[in-house]
Amino acid sequence: MKTIKTFALAALLSATAFAGAEAHVSFLDKEVPLDTTILATLQVPHGCDGKATTEVRVKLPEGFVFAKPQPKAGWELEVIKGDYQKTYDNHGDKVKTGAIEIRWKNGNLSDDFYDTFVIQGKVSGVEAGSSLAFPVTQLCGDAVTAWDQVAEAGGDAHGLKSPAPLLKVVAGEDHGHDHDDMAGMNMPGMDTTGKPGMDMSAMGAAAPETVKAGDLEISGGFAKAMLPGQPVGGGFFTVKNNGKTDDRLVSVSSPVAGEVQIHEMATKDNVMRMRQLKDGVAIAAGETLKLEPGNLHLMFQKVKTPFKQGDTVPVTLTFEKTGKVDLALQVLSAQGK
What we know:
This protein starts with a helix and ends in a 5-residue tail after the last strand. The protein contains one helix and 23 strands. The chain folds into two domains: 177 residues, Uncharacterised protein YcnI-like PF07987, DUF1775 (Immunoglobulin-like); 133 residues, PCu(A)C copper chaperone (Immunoglobulin-like, Sandwich). The chain has a 16-stranded mixed sheet that branches. The chain has a four-stranded antiparallel sheet with strand order 1-3-8-5, with no helix packed on it. A three-stranded mixed sheet has the order 2-12-9, with no helix packed on it. A hairpin with a 2-residue loop joins strand 13 and strand 14. The relative contact order is 0.16. By secondary structure, it is mostly beta strands.
């Protein structure tokens, strides 16, 4: 009986310790191969003393480069850019600046639930066996929790009250090609280099369809290919208003996504902000509206099946005066420049 009680107590203590460890903000996968592009998935298990989480800020360490966050429905997104301490090679380009902090803002994650925040990036220029710390600030209205403690070399991180999430760097396998081609995870509106623009002719794709509805002429529609399991996609097209009356793109829907939002992306003072345009966007008489990489774009949320190159994505555009217009977006490679 004494042995059973001792075993039960040990099991209880072990479970308690496990629960305590999982109560911290941490990464889903805690080991990453060197010189590999990864999806760093940050887990936020609770709010701040019962309050809902409204903002998550993640500082990116040196050695985690070319970072791009995955947008989240209901959250605004900021990417703060700055200088790297070293210069990194990105397919022959020498890169000295990039994202140094990611902020998901103005959300509402109840303390009753947990959620994940995903950042694509490459681990480069660090030694295998070392760890990269990602200090996180969790805001819950006026309450703030900082997950930023890092143990000294050889110290025990388990004794820290508010440890920063860590990624342990392990030796990578030589695949002959670095998969920055996870660029299917690019934020809608950015190409694989983080620069706006996509040359469709370089992909050998047929010209997208042109649809005329009333005074509107809609052309150049395309979407980007996505990774398996990726829930968010991007879409683009051009609308020319040939009439003498203003119109407005009010909303967009698609049978392949749970929701389609109209987003605006803008960079000012090295801070890139992306926000949803809930009231739609105007198309002035005689003017042309472009939804393009790095600017206005469609955000497909809760995509049922990831977009594959060569497929088409059906969308229904709803205009204030013209009404509903059906359009097919061609799915192009995510790696087009």
